[in-house]
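Board notes (copied after class):
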Amino acid sequence: MGQKKTLQSIRTTEKITIDGLLDEAIWKIAPIATDFVMINPGNGTPIPNRQKTDVKIVYDNEAVYVAATLYDDEPSKILKELTLRDDFATADHFGVFFNGYNDGQHEFRFFVSAAGVQQDGLYTDALGEDFSWDAIWKSEVKITDFGWVVEMKIPYAALRFPNSAVQTWGLNFYREVRRDRYQYCWNLISNTIQNEATQAGVLEGIENIKTPTRLFFIPYSSFYLNTKKGESSVNEFKAGMDIKYGINDAFTLDAILVPDFGQTKFDNVELNLSAFEQIFAEQRPFFTEGTDLFSKGDLFYSRRIGSEPSTYPDTTSDEEVINYPNTVNLLNALKISGRTKSGLGIGVLNAITEKTNAIVRKNTINPDNSETISERDVVVEPLANYNVLVLDQRFNKNSSVSLVNTNVTRNGEYRDANVSALVWDLNTKKNTFNLEGDFKYSYVNELSDLEDRKGYVSSLSFGKTSGKRRFRIGGNYVSNEFDNNDLGVNFQTHYHSLYGNTSYRILKPNELFNEFSTYLNLYSEYDNRTGRLQAGSANLQFNITNKKNDYISFAVNTVPLKTYDFYEPRSFDEKRFVEIPEQIHFSFLFSGNYNRRFALDFNPSFTFVNELERVNYVFSIGPRYRFNDKFSINANFRFVRQNKNTGWAAFDEFDNTIFARRDRKSITSTLSAKYSINNKMNFNLNVRHYWSSLNVLEYLTLLDNGTFEKNTTYSENKNQNLDTWNLDLAYSWWFAPGSQISILYRNNSYLFTRNNSQTFSENLNESLDSKNLNHVFSISIRYFIDYNSLKK
C-alpha cells in the first residue's frame, strides 16, 4: 500500500446551515482534500482536471460537516435519477467513509446523489457494504454551472469512536461520474487488495469534543384494515416505540417496545420440493440495521425469532388441529453494540416471544349416536428468550478473533439450545495472505426422554487475497449431532469437505474490456459414516465488463462422478441415500448498461443429467425502462422446466421410501415501478405472480443401494400446483429527518391444490379472483425525537 493521505479538520464556532451554498466563513479557510484517483475502471489513474474534486471537513461538539465541490465541464450531463433512500439507481454520487477507530476493518459510509437522495451503510471486509443500516443525518446538493456541490452534517450519534481527547479516524471520499461509469476516491483503493477499509486515509484535528447525549425516541402508530370477500373486515390499531440510547460514544442500546412489522416486504414463496425449509431474507428493520457484529460465525438467522412454533400438538384418532399459528408474536427486543478503545467489539442481542397456543378439536360419538364437540388449547410455543453474545477483538488493523454464543431458552419442559463458536480471520501485514476458520459447539436439551444432542463444526482455509492471481484452499468437518437451527441455519451434518479455487483478473482496462476475471472452483464433500461422495463439482466462470459497460458472464459447472444424497430420502437417522447421476450445467448472463433508458438482463441456463431424457432449463429476461428521472419500470419473466426430475414423494404403509419421477414447470413474473415526486416522497409498486406445477409420471421404490425399482402399487395423488400473487402499492414521505409516513395497499392470494391440469392463464385468473384475494390497507406514522431538542 502507498502512503496514506492525511486531512486536517478544524473546529467551527459559527452555525453551519446545510443548504449546499458553502457560504460560511469557515469553508474558506478549511484545509482541502484533493487529487482524487480512479478506482474503476483504470485503477490508480489521476482524476482529470475537468472533474476535479475538492473536499473539506470541519467539526463542532455536535457533528462533523463535509463540503464537497465536484467540478464537471458538462454539468448538463450530470445524471440525477430520483429514487427511494439507499437506491443508487442512475445518478452521480459523492460519499464519505469514516472509521472512528482507524482500525482498517469497519467503515460508516454516507453517500448523496446529485438528485439529493441519501444512501448510508456499513462496510466490513467479511460482508462488504450493508445498506440495511440507516442513520439520521442531513445533506443538500446544488447543481451549478461548474458541476455540483454537496454539503453534509453527520452527527456524532451516527458514528462510533473511542473516548479520547484527540481523535484519529480513518477517512476516505468517493465520487462516481455515472455517465462514464467512472469511480474515484481520495486515498487509493487498490484493486490488488481485497479489503477496502485498510486503504483509507487519515482524518486528524478533531479534539476535545463534548458530544451531546445520544438519546432518541421513535414512537409510531399504525392502522390496519384487513378484508376478504365473504368475510368480516378486521380493524387493528397498533402503537409502540423504538428507543436508541448512546451509553457512550462507542456503545449504543437499541430497543423496540411493542414492535410492528406489518409493512415489511412480502416473502418470495416458492413450491419447495427439497428436504429443507425455504429460507427468506430478513425484512424487519430492527434485525437488519447495524447487525454486522451478530453475523460473526454465521450462527444467527434472525427469522427464527417470531417464526412458526417449535412443537406440534399430539392428537388422538378422534382429534384434529383446527387452528395452528404460523408465527409467534415478538414481545420486545434490544441490542447493545459497540467497541472499546482497544478494539474489543461487544454485541448483545436479546428478544422475547410470547406463549402461543393451538386449538385442538375433539369429536366424541356418544352411546345414543349423538356427537359431542369439544375444544382444548395446547401450548405449541412457550414464552421463549433468544440471546446472542459476541466478543470480537480486532488487531493489526486487518485481523480479528471472535467468540460468539447463541442461546434459546423456552419456559418449562421444552427444547433449549446453546451454540458457541470461536472464529478467526487473520491477514498478513500487507493484506496479501489470509487464514480464516472457526470451531463451533452445539448443545441441545431435547424434549422429554429424547437424548440431548452435542455436536461440533470446524473449518479452516488459507488463501492469497491480492494481485492478479489469487487462490484459496480449505475444508471443514461437521459432526452428526451438530444443530444450531433454534437460532441459526444448518441443514446438513455428518460430512467433511475439501475445496480449492483460483482466480485471475485484469487490474487495468485493455482495448477489449474494462474488467475481466475468471474463476475455477473445485469442491468435494463426503459422508463421515460411509465415506461416500455427497458432492463433487468443478466450476469455471468468466466475467466481463465490455467497453460499453455491459456485463457478461458465462459459467460451466460439472459433476463428473455419481454422488449420494443422504437428505432427500427423509429417513429418521439420515442413513438411507439416493444415487445422483453425473451432470453438467451451462449458464449465461447478459446485463446491459443501466445508464441507457432501456436496458435488458438476459439469463438462460441448461442442466443435462446422465439419465434418460432428464434435463432442466431456465430462461429469464428482465427489461427495464427509465422514462425520466422520476419514473421507471422494471420487469422480469422467469421460466423453469424440469423434465424427468426425481425426488421424494412419501412413505407407504410398509415404510418403503417412495420417490416420484415427475415433470415440473414454474413461471415467475415480477413488475416494479417507482415514481418519485422529490427526494423524500415516493410511490412504489411491486407485483409478483408465481406459478409452479408438478406432474407425477411414475412412482419408484428406493432400494438400499440408492437406486430404484418401479412401484406399480402406490397410487396416492402427489401432483402439486402452487399459485401465489402479491401486490404492494406504497407511498412514503420522509417529512423530517428520521420521521416517515407510510401508506400501503396490499393484496395477495395463496392457492395450493393437487390438480395440475390448469393452464398458466387459468391459474392467474384464480389468483385474481375476488373470492381468493386478501386485501390490507395500512397507514403508519413514525416520528423521530431527539432528547436534546426536547431539552431546548
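Comment from the instructor: The mean pLDDT is 95. The CA atoms of residues 102 and 170 lie 4 Å apart.
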